[in-house]
């Protein structure tokens, strides 16, 4: 007789290509070699599942936008994500990443709208804050509210994979998604 399949809750990490998904996963799991990182966009092609202490899966999704070859692959990303969201039954939420150095694109806004329309719980994570000066950091919330509308009910976390203290609010947000 086969052993029963163990099903764990899932939290998927999604964002534009080169937003820092793999670096953030490595920092969260305190393993710099867990997910492959590259300065060139488009290395992650499939969903990658990382078992976190037997408690849940962090799912690393390919980035949307441009790949290393410069070709647009939104259709492939959209189809993969549509299939994922239709088939997953243990999704607890989305860690939705935005690069602090760039204004949200139309693709970012479209994905944000998708999450809201589908009622999928998410944490909006702004990455690479270590690359900003204090003035730029203070404008982040205003810029996000301009791009997405009122975010007062949204959990927004500012992070840097190089600054472990910035990961503590994200770890708490993950615990909240799982509870």
Helix % is: 25-40%
Q: What order do the strands of the largest sheet run in, or round the barrel if closed?
A: 2-3-1-4-5-6
Known CATH architecture? 3-Layer(aba) Sandwich
**Estimated radius of gyration:** 16 Å
Mean pLDDT: 84
The CATH class turns out to be Alpha Beta
Q: What's the name of the CATH homologous superfamily?
A: P-loop containing nucleotide triphosphate hydrolases
The portion of residues forming beta strands comes to: 15-25%
Short description:
The protein has 179 residues and is an alpha/beta fold.
Polypeptide structure, described:
The protein is of the alpha/beta class and 179 residues long. The protein has a single domain, classed as P-loop containing nucleotide triphosphate hydrolases (Rossmann fold, 3-Layer(aba) Sandwich), CATH 3.40.50. The chain is built from six helices and six strands. Strands 2-3-1-4-5-6 form a six-stranded mixed sheet, with helices on both faces. Helix 3 (106-118) links the parallel strand 4 and strand 5. It is globular. It starts with 9 loop residues before the first strand and ends with a helix.
């Amino acid at each position: 007789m086969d052993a029963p399949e163990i099903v764990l809750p899932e939290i998927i990490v999604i964002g534009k290509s080169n937003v820092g998904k793999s670096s953030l996963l490595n920092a969260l799991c305190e393993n710099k070699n867990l997910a492959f990182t590259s300065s060139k966009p488009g290395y992650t092609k499939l969903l990658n599942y990382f078992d976190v202490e037997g408690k849940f899966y962090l799912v690393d999704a390919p980035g949307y936008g441009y790949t290393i070859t410069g070709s647009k692959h939104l259709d492939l990303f959209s189809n993969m994500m549509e299939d994922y969201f239709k088939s997953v039954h243990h999704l607890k939420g989305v860690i939705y990443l935005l690069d602090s150095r760039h204004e949200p694109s139309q693709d970012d806004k479209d994905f944000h709208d998708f999450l809201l329309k589908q009622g999928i719980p998410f944490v909006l994570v702004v990455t690479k804050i270590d690359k900003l000066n204090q003035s730029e950091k203070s404008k982040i919330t205003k810029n996000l509210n301009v791009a997405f509308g009122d975010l007062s009910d949204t959990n927004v976390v500012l992070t840097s994979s190089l600054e472990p203290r910035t990961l503590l609010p994200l770890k708490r947000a993950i615990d909240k998604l799982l509870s």
